[in-house]
Every structure is written in structure tokens, then in C-alpha cells.
Amino acid sequence: MEQRVTTIIAHIAASHREMSRILEAKRVVTSQMASIASDIPDSNPDFEGLGMLQEQALQLTKNVTAYLNSLANLEEAIAQQTEIVMKEMNGSDAEE
Q1: Rounded distance, CA 12 to CA 18, Å?
Q2: Per-residue confidence at 37, pLDDT binned at 50, 70, 90?
Q3: Whole-number Cα distances in Å, 93 to 20, 78, 88, 89, 96
Q4: What is the pLDDT of residue 92?
Q5: Angle between helices 51-95 and 2-37 (to 10 degrees)
Q6: Looking at the predicted structure, is the pLDDT value of residue 21 above 60?
Q7: Contact 5/85 with Cβ under 8 angstroms?
Q8: How does DSSP assign 35-62, residue by residue?
Q9: 1 in helix, strand or coil?
Q10: Which range (6-10, 49-53, 56-60, 83-87) has the least confidence?
């Protein structure tokens, strides 16, 4: 039983590593977008109004929010899976 729990934990850890790699890629993209948003104007560099600037700021905010939501989802997944493993480990201790 302990071997099964260890194997499950190893698979969960591998899954979390992969999710972390995906989030790292999202982080890089989001930070790059944030850095170029202030440097590169849109196709119309005059900005006759604030509409285009507001649209770009909104898009950047959406990307940052999506990244933070992804981090929250990863944290929730880790917590749920850790809870299941801990319950299983406590159950196997009670059996012995």
C-alpha cells in the first residue's frame, strides 16, 4: 500500500512540475507583453484619444489576471491532491 501511495505522489509531483513549466511560459509571455506595451505604440502613433491606450492596458490587465488565475488553480490542485494523499497515508497508518 505504501508503494502505491509513493507512486501516486511521484506522479502528482511530475504533474505539478509540468503545470509549473506551463505557468513559467505564461509568466514570460505576460512580462514581455508588459515590457513592450509601454515601448511600442499601436499602428497609429498619434493617439488622438485615449481609446487605443485604454484598449491595450485592458488587454494587458486581462493577461496578467489570467496568469494569476492559473497560479491560483495550480495552488488549489496541489492542495486538493496533497489532501487526498495525506488522507490515504493516515488511512494506511491506521490499518497497520
Answers
A1: 10
A2: low
A3: 31, 22, 9, 6, 5
A4: 62
A5: 170
A6: yes
A7: yes
A8: HHHTTS--S-TT-SSSHHHHHHHHHHHH
A9: coil
A10: 49-53
All cell numbers assigned to 91: 488511512
User: b/e per residue, 55-74, with b = 16+ CB within 10 A?
Assistant: ebeeebeebeeebeebeeee
Residue 43: φ, ψ to 5°? -60, -25
Q: Is the pTM of this model over 0.90?
A: no
Backbone angles phi, psi at 91, to 5 degrees: -65, -40
